[in-house]
């Protein structure tokens, strides 16, 4: 019986995918797996029994990835599960920036007692008039699951779309509309596009990528949309760009003291993935990833360990080993099984940066004794019996 703890409310649509081998528990200390959305785990003590954490969403800045890796705890996320919800809000953000719909609605609310409001509106509406997005140039920085959907939808709306992603995956390339112009230098997007939307992860290399230097390269009156992470933009520089007129609108899904209520800022209260459908999709994917890992040792969509899939084990046993990505580890593992007279019928070894993951299918049931011996090898974080 596997025990699962939910640090946040998780959609029942996802939880219903657990088989009768699983029990949802309120006690994190006895959990084999944790499902989480926004709760911060940085100050939490990682339970010794814990095997996996699945984030029902894409961002994992609330989870101590390196700490989990060193304890042999696999962290999953659910890329693409909420992509459509975010895509739709990005399109809404573009429309709100193009035409002052919010200002117009506020004007109507302020004049609710005016008996001649219809007549007054005809005089005032010029203050809220804007432009259409058809024919405008949109630059999409980051062509992952969300970026591709935004780019394709914008093409359908008649926009001229430019996409930039130096790490464009084969799957993303297949799904991307042929009408999207793939540029090799992000400066081309800055120089040419009327609208710029960011869809990249928050890394050291992307933190503050929208700043005074990049803004200076942009067209006069550019609209910047940030539905990825607020720290991707130096928002002090953005406010200066708004004040000078270089930036016409800044649309963000991340309210904070810097931008909230500022002129030219359209700030949405982090609604990008907050749809029933997105939450259901994320929960289903997180549960499926968790089950495949706990039952088979397979890793898909992990953010701290490499992808690895050996299917369902048909042999007597399967052992998973988490270790440093250093030389001679496989030799030591196989020697350990050889000393016990246990034949290895299949094996996979994958690495990711400084960590690695090895799975071995064996022809006899592995014992706690062999696992203990594996964990005594220098460089091994953890070993577990997946089947046996």
How many β-strand stretches? Answer: 16
Q: Name the average pLDDT.
A: 96
Proportion in β-strands: 15-25%
Q: Give the oligomeric state.
A: single chain
Q: Report the C-alpha radius of gyration, rounded.
A: 25 Å
Largest sheet: 7 strands, parallel
Succession of helices and strands = EHEEEHEHHHEHEHEHEHEHEEHEHEEHE
Class per helix and strand makeup: alpha/beta
**Which residues sit in consecutive blocks of at least 5 with pLDDT less than 50?**
none
End-to-end CA span? 14 Å
Enumerate the strands of the largest sheet in spatial order, edge to edge or round the barrel.
8-7-6-9-10-11-12
The best one-word shape is: elongated
Helicity, as a percent range: 25-40%
- The number of distinct helices, counting runs of at least 4 residues, comes to 13
């Amino acid at each position: 019986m596997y025990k699962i703890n939910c640090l946040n409310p998780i959609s029942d649509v996802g939880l219903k995918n657990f088989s009768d081998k699983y029990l949802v528990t309120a006690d994190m200390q006895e959990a084999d797996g944790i499902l989480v959305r926004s709760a911060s785990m940085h100050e939490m003590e990682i339970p010794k029994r814990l095997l996996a954490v699945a984030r029902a969403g894409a961002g994992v800045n609330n989870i101590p990835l390196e700490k989990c890796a060193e304890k042999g705890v696999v962290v999953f996320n659910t890329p693409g599960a909420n992509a459509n919800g975010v895509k739709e809000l990005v399109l809404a953000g573009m429309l709100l920036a193009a035409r002052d719909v919010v200002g117009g609605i506020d004007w109507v609310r302020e004049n609710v007692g005016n008996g001649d409001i219809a007549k007054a509106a005809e005089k005032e509406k010029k203050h809220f008039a804007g432009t259409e997005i058809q024919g405008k140039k949109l630059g999409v920085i980051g062509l992952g699951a969300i970026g591709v959907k935004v780019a394709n939808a914008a093409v359908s709306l008649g926009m001229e779309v430019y996409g930039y992603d130096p790490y464009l995956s084969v799957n993303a390339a297949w799904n991307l509309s042929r009408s999207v112009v793939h540029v090799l230098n992000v400066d081309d997007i800055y120089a040419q596009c009327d609208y710029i939307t960011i869809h990249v992860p928050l890394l050291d290399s992307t933190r503050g990528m929208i700043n005074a230097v990049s803004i200076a390269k942009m067209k006069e009156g550019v609209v910047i949309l940030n539905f990825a992470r607020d720290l991707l933009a130096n928002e002090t520089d953005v406010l200066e760009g708004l004040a000078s007129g270089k930036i016409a609108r800044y649309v963000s899904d991340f309210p904070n003291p810097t931008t909230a209520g500022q002129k030219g800022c359209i700030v949405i209260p982090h609604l990008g993935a907050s749809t029933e459908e997105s939450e259901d999709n994320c929960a289903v994917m997180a549960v499926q990833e968790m089950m495949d890992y706990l039952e088979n040792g397979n890793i898909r969509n992990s953010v701290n360990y490499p992808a690895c899939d050996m299917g369902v084990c048909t042999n007597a046993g399967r052992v998973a080993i988490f270790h440093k990505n250093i030389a001679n580890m496989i030799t030591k593992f196989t020697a350990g099984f050889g000393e016990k007279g246990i034949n290895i019928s299949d094996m996979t070894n994958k690495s990711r940066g400084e960590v690695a993951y090895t799975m071995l299918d064996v022809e006899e049931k592995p014992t706690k004794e062999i696992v203990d011996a594996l964990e005594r090898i220098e460089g091994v974080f953890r070993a577990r019996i997946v089947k046996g």
